Amino acid sequence: MQINVERPAPCQAKVSFTVPSTEFEAEFQKALKELGKRMKIKGFRPGHVPADVVARLQGKELRQEVAMRFVNQAYSRAIDENKLRPLNNPQVDFGEVLAGVDFAHSFEFPLRPEFQLAEYKGLELESSLPPILDEEIEAAIDQARKNQAHPEPIGDDGLPEDGMALCKVTLLHEGAQVWERDGLRISPSTTLPGVDGATFKAAMTGKKDGDTVECPITFPEDFEAADARGKAGVARVEIKNAFKIIQPSREELMKIIGAADEAELLRRAKEGLEQANTQLENQRVETELLERLIAAHTMDLPPAMIDEQAKGRLAQMRAELEQSGKRGDELEQELSAREQSARADATKASKAYFLIERIAEAEKIQVAEQELVGELRSIARRNRSSFEEVRDFYQQQNLLGQLAMEILERKIRAFLRENAKLVAPKA
């Protein structure tokens, strides 16, 4: 088999090859014999089906299989002999494979960019953590009390502004029901979409179990009932159970979290703030270091990769704009205006992908199987699903590679930060 490799573009390879008919037919006859040994056909002893019978029953499919073997051989030789770094496997379609003629075919596939990796360790960057103020500690304690709050029936007091009610909500347009949900948790301070906040709060505050309130509504432009979009209607709220939200006292909070005294409460609140600030600063440092590396490297990128990523970003933008109520020409104009930025973002993301990959290769940083399993278990816990359900979903959707790359990116970002030279800001 003769092969020829061309580089029509910096990140593209084209492989052409020809298999003489004698070589192809020899491989085909060999495949017929191998299949004949495995076939079971009435009238023949198992494993002794003649080649001509196999050819009559499975010849067309088997020629395709043999042709694919030669494609794989050509692909492997092209990579090994030319030291190519493929990004994806080739998509091959050679149609019907004819007998008695040379088998000639060509295919293309994208390549990873070739570039010189610049210095990525010891990058200098200013970094500091602001001091934790007393008022921030108090705010954190107040938030912790809110997080530990629990509902209690209101009794005869009426629903307070910061209370919560289990409700049945019915939306009416021209007197007809267009939407209904039961068992919704609603607070007077959180209005329904399209209902004036002050009006809703005034109507709900003070209400008790069994009360019903009605407020005017202007249906959002993305409302599911198209006939009601942008038009006036009525929001009817039936209060099934009303609750007041009881926050624990400072002393009760200390018992809940196991703080021995006021000093430990303050210390733990401060440590929590410091941990959160450290995490935010680490993220900022990692992002800036990666941005520097992206700016410092010039590389040719596979056009198909940029096109695919930009297309995905624009599809996400379309969904967000449609959700915000934009339609028709306004929507298309907005998308057209954002197309250039989508391609720029796709280009930056692609450069980051190849930089992360190359640094990982240079430092021999890999994603172990137990790390992938741990990430799947975390996803399962967050979504209240079983590990098996999450694992099967990621396998079926071919998302395990993407998940491994996300883990690898986190490891490389941390590596860059840990190997950077962090200095205090200049006065």
Name its key features:
alpha+beta; five-stranded antiparallel β-sheet; single chain; 10 strands; Alpha-Beta Plaits; three-stranded antiparallel β-sheet; 427 residues
Folded structure, characterized:
- The chain has helices at residues 21-38, 51-82, 134-147, 197-204, 250-257, 262-296, 303-323, 328-363, 369-382, 387-396, 400-418, and strands spanning 2-9, 12-19, 103-110, 124-126, 150-153, 164-173, 176-186, 212-218, 232-246, 421-423.
- The protein is an alpha+beta fold.
- Among the domains are: 2-110, Trigger factor ribosome-binding domain (Alpha-Beta Plaits); 150-246, Chitinase A, domain 3 (Roll), CATH 3.10.50.40.
- Strands 5, 6, 7, 8 and 9 form a 5-stranded antiparallel β-sheet that branches. The chain has a 3-stranded antiparallel β-sheet with strand order 1-2-3. It has a two-stranded parallel ribbon with strand order 4-10.
- A hairpin with a 2-residue loop joins strand 1 and strand 2 (12-19).
- Helix 3 packs across helix 6, helix 6 (262-296) packs across helix 11 and helix 8 (328-363) crosses helix 11.
- The longest helix has 36 residues, at 328-363.
- The protein is extended and about 95 Å long.
- The N and C termini lie far apart (70 Å).
